[in-house]
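User: Predict the structure for this protein chain, please.
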Amino acid sequence: MVAFGYHGDLFHGSQIQPNVPTVQKAIENALKKVSWWSVGCLEMSSRTDAGVSVRMNLACIDVPLTVWNEVDKKTILRVLNNRFPEGLCAWDVIKVESNIRSRAAKARTYLFRTELIEEWSSGVDEELFLNACRVMIGTHNFTNFCKLEEDKNPIRTIDKCEPWYSSDGRIIGILICSEAFLWNQVRRIAAAITGVAVGRIKFTSLESALNKPDIPIDLGRAQSNGLILWSIEHEFSREMGLQSNPDTLGFSIPPEKKYRFKRWLSMAKLEMGLLLERDWEDSLNSV
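Assistant: Here is the predicted structure, written as structure tokens:
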């Protein structure tokens, strides 16, 4: 089982697609280069859309037993990373039985930096933000907060939805945790919470969208570049970086003047990338 992450803007999502770079294809190519590849040997835990970054995803990879017996953990990671493209990093690995499924996760935690949403700079009501987070917690029908795929059950349980605070104590986004999410669910929840906090959406409209899923309403969908899959809790991943906290010390404050927002956004994206790189480097150094 390998823990790995990637910068979302360098891949067209995680799943293989024709004629575009994807994370799954990059891992497959790396395994082929070192003769560790066989058909069906790779299973990834979580899929992500184009533009979504990941600090921690999990993959189960069936490799010859001699690889594990003869090569240490640090060397396995170095072999993979030397053959991965830019923006993809394997940072931990453990041995598991061949019948273990990486998709059988107990919980997935996402961070969304809501201050990257342009309307954030108009000012945020923190109490409304907190209340909007709280109402999402629990088991609900999230039809109005996802792009619902055919035959998918829209009922999900949100175990945690709370403000993500910067190191200097300001709200910069949301932290949300569930066993499984629907397509675009976190991005739509982030847009809705932000809309309530800035006054674009009435709190009663948010409640109605959640409690009356049979009445369609679109509360918006936030951009993919604010989203990070931060961690995956799995029965066998307890030692794989689950206690790591995002280091936001270098995060800048959004400008009050809207004409400066796009310039700031470029810098904020770099800050998000640096957050991941520092975390991966710390993890690799501790192996």
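The mean pLDDT is 94.
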